Amino acid sequence: MQSRFDLFGSRERGGAAYRYCGVFVATMLVFGVAPAVLGQSVPDKPKQDVSVPAAKADSLKNKVVRKKLVADLSGFELLKSGNASNSQTVVGATRGGAAPDALAPRLGKFYGPGAFFSWSNPSGASDFTFVITDDQDSQIFRTRVHGTNFVYPPAAPELQPGKIYSWTVASAGLLGGDPSDPVEFTVVSNAERQEIEKAIAAIPKGDDWHAGLARAQVLTDHRLWYDALGAYCALIVRWPDRAELFEKRGTIYSQIEITKPLAEMNFAENEKLLASQVSERH
Q1: Which of 137, 156, 220, 225 could form a disulfide linkage to 108, CB 3.0–4.6 angstroms apart?
Q2: Does residue 248 contact residue 232 with C-beta atoms inside 8 Å?
Q3: Can you tell me the distance from the alpha carbon of 126 to that of 12, in angstroms, rounded to the nearest whole number?
């Protein structure tokens, strides 16, 4: 069985192996486990001392402080504060332990394949059932997922522009488990899709790194929560030692309350990578 504290377990569905992108690091916060290096599982051993000498720490002081001044990317959450979702929460007996929480806005935006869905894992389950339903509560998509994240694949049903859908997950053990409270997303309109495609098409080709960053920025600018996170996760898979990727992903996570702990962990990894780079130069 996969450890409940496996940070970045391989993605078996929905594209490439997202070994460095399982945002279910929130599981560690639920169980009070100190985070290890992002991209690794968490063994039962004392934390390593990652402090740097005073002189090097001084050189990083401004960078560390800068992480506290997080950019305002308002707009990922479309549901106004105080407004209730149309989805109904069913209250009843717990079948398979505590239900997971969707790590996403209550109402976000969705662009297409590559969108990244993730959830917490308070029960320590290994497998989950991921379900998307439409506004008539008809099931559109259902799949079994190993781990606590899912990348929407090109072969999945095409979702209709402008429509609102909801998604839930539940542990997929013998007894099953209570599903997460549903959260909703709206698919971008045809007009906005054309804007996004035009911006992406204008990105210069030939440099995967800069092209990937530019594409992720386009998705961020359009406040596409699932797609922007998917883009940064794909970049982290290829370039796990690039500090700025963790800062950018952390900035997105910082925009809603439920993922602020993940933001702090991404900012910490950013600072750690920056400190490592300073250490290597000296």
Answers
A1: 225
A2: yes
A3: 13
3-state secondary structure labels for all residues of the chain: CCCCCCCCCCCCCCCCCCCCCCCCCHHHHHHCCCCCCCCCCCCCCCCCCCCCCHHHHHHHHHHHHHHHCCCCCCCCCCCCCCCCCCCCCCCCCCCCCCCCCECCCCEEEECCCCCEEEECCCCCCCEEEEEEECCCCCEEEEEEEECCEEECCCCCCCCCCCCEEEEEEEECCCCCCCCCCCEEEEECCHHHHHHHHHHHHCCCCCCHHHHHHHHHHHHHHCCCHHHHHHHHHHHHHHCCCCHHHHHHHHHHHCCCHHHHHHHHHHHHHHHHHHHHHHHHHC
Rounded CA gap, 205 and 3, in Å?
Answer: 40
Residue 146 has pLDDT above 80, yes or no: yes
How many residues are present in the chain? 282
**Residues of the chain above pLDDT 70, percent:** 69
- Rounded to whole angstroms, the Cα distance separating 19 from 236 reads 9
Determine the Cα–Cα distance for residues 12 and 276; give it in Å rounded to an integer: 32
Q: 153: which strand partners? A: none
Scan for tokens 């305002």, then name that residue: 72
* Packing angle, helices 260-281 and 243-253, rounded to 10: 160
Q: Tell me: the pLDDT tens digits for 173-232?
A: 766 789 999 999 999 999 999 999 999 999 999 999 999 999 999 999 999 999 999 999
Residue 107, both tokens: 């109402």
C-alpha distances in angstroms, 189 versus 109, 139, 141, 160?
10, 21, 20, 9
User: Is pLDDT of 50 > 50?
Assistant: no
